Amino acid sequence: MEIRPFIDHLEAKVLRGAQGSREDVLRLLALTPDSDDVQYLGQAARRVAAVAAHNTGRVWSAIGLDCRPCPKNCTFCSFGAKWGLVREEKELSAGEVIAIARRLVREGAAWVTLRTTEYYGFDRVCKMARQIRDAVPGDYGLVVNTGQMGEEEVAAMQAAGIGVVYHSLRLGEGKCTCFSPQERLVTLRAVSASPLRLAHLVEPVGPEHTDEELAHVFMTALENGASLSGVMARVNVPGTPGASSAELPEARLAQIAAITRLCGGLRVPDICVHPVSRQAVAWGANVVVVEEGAVPRNETFCADVWRGFDVPQAQALFREAGYTLHGEQTAG
């Protein structure tokens, strides 16, 4: 089948409730990012977003609670002890976290994510989640992005008012990280078997990653029932091993976002792109990220939002792309 009839057929298939196969993903990844065919793909993905996401743009906010020199030394993370960028421990107080969360929700964030290092402590994360639920009213999801976990930890998070877990099988797992793919899969399966929702991006993507690698990580997200997926490009932080690496072109980032949208179908209502990309939003990504505090894509602790990108800017981007904003439907 020629590529455009194939895209039409895939669009119709996913709108009936199916998802794209590994072979579908690979065929779309093989397209040249700046080609007319990828433009056609992006338009199809945007139509699917109008149905799957109810044409609603949502801001994923992330608060980095702590940073410290980390012996895990993941090559893409600025916290690695070997890189010497983070020389001492720093963490936000409960009052600071609550104040940030309250502001983000007031501005219109759809999710508040508590992101921690491996060493913050699981019980402390759950305690912080309960404090936020008690102190910050509003229409938002509470997310945790922390270390490995099993059934017991998953149940405790649900009891603490957490609704979503961010966890991914990362590109280069076991090579660029000290975690084995099997370790990451244990957590994915524990979340998948629970009432909690799973958020799992294809990340961190560089131009060197093959179509097969990208497809494998995305299919892992689908196989574990992710309700939020999408793509995050690797940020080559000065001083880390990736500092001299090439950046992922925005056209490729947007192409991957469109593929996750089209092949995820109705079962993956939310597709995220990070860092923000206007092209990816135009091609079906309905979630962008606003983050502050400890950010593993930054050399220093962020006293303000990362790269100056805040909730109002995200909302303006969604409006420009023709999305309704999270909260507007219920408010209206």
Question: Any overview of this molecule?
Answer:
With 332 residues, this protein is of the alpha/beta class. The chain has a single domain, classed as TIM Barrel (Alpha-Beta Barrel), CATH 3.20.20.70. The protein is built from 12 helices and 12 strands. It has helices spanning 3-15, 22-29, 36-52, 94-107, 122-135, 151-159, 181-192, 211-223, 250-264, 278-282, 311-320, 328-331, and strands spanning 56-64, 66-67, 90-91, 111-115, 141-145, 164-166, 197-199, 202-205, 228-233, 270-274, 287-293, 324-325. The strands form 2 sheets. Strands 1, 4, 5, 6, 7, 8, 9, 10, 11 and 12 form a 10-stranded parallel sheet that branches. Strand 9, helix 9 (250-264) and strand 10 form a beta-alpha-beta unit. The longest helix is centred in the first third of the chain and has 17 residues, at 36-52. The chain is globular, with a radius of gyration of 19 Å. The mean pLDDT is 96.
In short:
By secondary structure, the chain is of the alpha/beta class.
Main pleated sheet: 10 strands, parallel
Q: Mind telling me the C-alpha Rg?
A: 19 Å
- What is the count of β-strands? 12
CATH topology: TIM Barrel
Order of helices and strands: HHHEEEHEHEHEHEEHEHEHEHEH
* Number of helices in the DSSP assignment: 12
| CATH superfamily heading | Aldolase class I
N-to-C span: 45 Å
* Residue-averaged pLDDT: 96
Report the principal-axis shape.
globular
**Which CATH-level-2 architecture?**
Alpha-Beta Barrel
> Into how many domains do the coordinates divide?
1
Poorly predicted segments: none
